[in-house]
UniProtKB/TrEMBL annotation:
UniProt keywords, alphabetically: Hydrolase, Metal-binding, Metalloprotease, Protease, Zinc
Presence of keyword Protease: yes
Domain M23ase beta-sheet core, chain residue ranges per copy: 75-182
Signal peptide location: none
Any Pfam family matching the protein: Peptidase_M23
Name assigned to this protein: M23 family metallopeptidase
Taxonomy of the source species: Bacteria, Pseudomonadati, Pseudomonadota, Alphaproteobacteria, Sphingomonadales
GO molecular function: hydrolase activity
The keyword Protease is annotated on this UniProt entry: yes
Domain of life: Bacteria
Cofactor(s) for this UniProt protein: Zn(2+)
EC number: 3.4.24.-
PANTHER family reported in the protein's UniProt record: CELL DIVISION PROTEIN YTFB, PEPTIDASE-RELATED
Amino acid sequence: MNGRLWSGGVVALLLCAAFAHFCVRIVPADPPSAPLQQAATRPADAGPLLIPVEGVPASALTDSFTQARAGGARPHDAIDIMAARGRAVLAAADGRVEKLFWSEEGGRTLYQRSADGRIIYYYAHLDGYAPGLREGQTLRRGQRIATVGSTGNADPAAPHLHFAVNVMAAGDPWHGGRPVNPYPLLVRR
C-alpha cells in the first residue's frame, strides 16, 4: 500500500510539473504608470524631450526622419515609435493641446503647441485620446494624452506612434512649420 501511495504521489507531482510547463505562461506585467514627477526624469541616454510612448527605451528608437513615404513622393519628416496597441502616449514636453484632428493619412491626431508657442509636437495614428482631453487644455510633460494605434494609413498589423516636431514662425497655422528631426531630441547621441 505504501508503494502505491508513493507512486501515486510521484505521478501527481509529474502531472503538476507537466501542467506548469505546458499550460502556465508567466509574463511580466506592463510597467505601472509613473507619477508625473517620475515620468519627467530622463534616463542617461534620453534627449531633451520625453520619449512619448510609455515604457519605450531610447535604444528601441530608429531614426526614420529622412525615409521616403508615399512611393518616394515625400519625406517622412517624423519618426515612428513601434509599440503595442493601447500603450500610453505621453506629452513629450509641457504645452497645450492645439488641435485634435482626424486626417486620412494620420488618422486620429493630436497637435500640441509648446509652452513658448514656437514648436508643434504632432502625434498621429492614435487609437484613442485620454478621457476628457480637449483643445486648449494645458499639458504637462509625461501626462497621458492618448493611446498607440494604427488609424489613418498605418498598417493595422504594426501599431505605432508617428511623432513629428515642427518649428513655428509667427503666423504659421497649427499644421504648418518647419520639420525638425525628433530623433536627436529623444535620444542623446
